[in-house]
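S1.2 Input.
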Amino acid sequence: MTKNIIAIDIGTQSSRASVVTQDGEILGVKQIAHDLDSPKPSWAQQNPDSWWEETCQALQAVLQETGIDKSSIAAVCSCGQMSGPVGIDEAGIVTTPWVQLWCDKRCSEQCEDMLKKHDELELLKHSANPIVPAWTGIKVRWHKDHELEAYNRTRWFLVPKDFINYRLTGVPAADPSEMSCSFVWDCETEAYSQDLADAVGVDLDKFAPIHPSHEVVGEVTEEASSLTGIPAGTPVVAGGGDFPVSMLGFGIVGDGVTADVTGTSTLLAAHTKKPLLDVSIQNLRHVVDGWIPFTILDCGGMSMKWCKDLVSSMRGKEVSYDELIAMASEAPAGSDGLTFYPYMLGERRRENTTSRGGYFGITLNHAAPHFVRAVMEGVALTMGKDILDFKKQGHEVKHLMSVGGGTRNELWNEIKASITGAPLELSEEPEAGLKGAALLGAAGVGLIGDLTETAIERRAETRIVEPDGEMAEKYREVQAEYTRIYKHMLGFWQES
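S1.3 Output.
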């Protein structure tokens, strides 16, 4: 009998459950949407009990729709939105009914306090990350400062997928991919650090024991079985954060592999043996051996939508993306000196969190096609700048993969390949998160061997876009100018 893996994904916009065969074929997916609550500026929160209720509903539905023999279920594995600490007490009752999500920035005050008391560069050597509001441990510190009674009552702080694992098994557990970006985990020892916990100002014993991402942490309980339909005793594998699990599902693993992930945002990520220690780069442990250094441009793909909406409003009718791309094609590489800086939602770097987007170098000779092409080039030049930062830290770009919705824009693909000077391998895998979770689940119960080799073997078919020699030569000059101006803009925008 073919064995099946139950893969769960607790996302920002929905909870999803799927049935995936041991060979990686998705038999069915059930999705239940949920909203993000933002009661104050820079706050983003959700209710964790609703995640569990949605997961139970999704599991029951997908099992019914696929009609699989439940005895074929070999394991359950979850991934989820990262760095959202769910507090539970000794009885497993939630102590934090509203959980700070990955994009919540309310703990900026805790970051400022840490920066006043500690040398960020010294902490970076151990945390592998700059001090920013994204990290789980700093979010926990916010609860300690603002909800002390709930903090004291909390036995464990669990991230979303670990909270689901706890509901399934009754076992508190964590994995390296999530804890590596908690700011209480040392990248050198690959273990929790009392020194970092002291620097953050939290109790280390409130964080769950760490297990490898592909390790079984417990079994489905009778109570969880009655709610989900999954047989009691089914092994539950640790899993990982949705980002690194998706990297596994895309096959973005192996020495020198680098990825451009362009959807709403644009994310540049690599697979390296060690973290790249720089205040402009963030790092997290991969779900296989090694690390994922990465940068995020919050307004990457969204810049194209903004441009489309702008042109549509000026023309008085809806403009399609194809029309927008055709317009951009009328302008030459480099847009005749017009440069776009795509920071309309600020930047992750602390000096630039309140930065804004803008055009630089406008002349009387610039027309609409220049302005449209400059948007595409601006996003690609930002990626090129970050690749240069990676290279300065010793990372060699051997393969550049491109995934996400941005791969459908052929002109953009040509621009990215020419700016980076590397062949762009395009993948259109639509369910990388669920497939990555299924890979971890299958490995956890011995259905597959080497995770990295299997992920590479199961990569979706790719097609390659080669750099254009003439364009690449032009873009080398443009990249240098883009980076020069960017450095001048660091710290220009100040909080009002």
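S1.4 Remarks. The chain has two domains: 4-250, 251-496.
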